[in-house]
Structure formats: structure tokens, C-alpha cells
Fold this protein.
Amino acid sequence: MTNMERSEATFIGDKGFTLVGPELMVGDKAPEFQGIDNSFHTVTLASTGNGVRIFSVVVSLDTPVCDAQTSRFNQEVTKHPDLSVYSMSMDLPYAQRRWCDAFGVDHIKMVSDHQSGSFGANYGVLIKELRIHSRALFVVDQHNVIQYAEYVREMGDQPDYDAALAIALKLGKV
């Protein structure tokens, strides 16, 4: 994990928060991480495979924008079954499973970063003051190189789904 901090890099209304970790850019190597899925199996960058992946980072599934973001990607995977989407949050695996069951979300993979926070810190989305993730999207190619990175400055705003999807679909030719 990195100790880099970026002050007022994300906001809730007019209150700024510090993000821990680097601001990743297109062309950067995707950092390793260790989270767990909702069956408590370890998930790492390597275990996500060597295809094109979208890492959809949400604050908490129990918020309206995160619900919309996760549901949107679940719908996209139904249209493009070869698309791999991972929803990353600090939510406990139990909460992730409960939310997925309640809303019929079963086409994307849920990853909890609550144990180590390594995804948050390594991808620069860990909010220091709250120990939750800030909203972001990353598209990682077959060579583990970031091809799209979006840090949503206002946590209540939605990311640019279409831009991330266009790049992922073009790279994966799905």
C-alpha cells in the first residue's frame, strides 16, 4: 500500500476529503490488490483473469447512485456476456450478497475491500477520513494496463458509463 495522499480530491457537497493512493492514468500498470468475494474467496488482480475488465468502484451499495451504477453494469453484462465487471466497495460480503439477492444482480462479480483496503489504497480511491471508497471506474486490458480511469470528484455524481463501456467493448471486441 502506498502512503500518498491527495487532499480534497473527492467531495460530498462542499466538504472535501483526502484520497489515499496514487491517481492512476491511462497507460499505468494496474496495481495488485487483495479483496474477498461474497463467498469469502480471495480476489486479486491475477485472479480476475487476463481479459478486459471493468472495475466499478462504489461508495456503498446501499446508496442510490451506487445502486444505479452497479445495476447499470449488471444490465450491460446481460447484453455483452463476455464483459467482465467487478464491483469494488468496502461493504461487507454479507451486505453485498444481501443487496445482490434483493435486486437480482447476478451478472457482475462483487469484491469487498473491507479487510485490507488494498484496492482502495493502490487505486487511489480510499477516503482517509471515512475508510470507504470514492466513486471511480477503471478499464484494465488483457495486459493489466489501465485503458480508462475516471475518478468522480463529487461522490453523488454518476460516472461516464458510456465512455468506459465503449473502451472495454472495443478492447474486448465483445
Remarks:
- The chain has four helices and eleven strands.
- The first helix runs from residue 64 to 79.
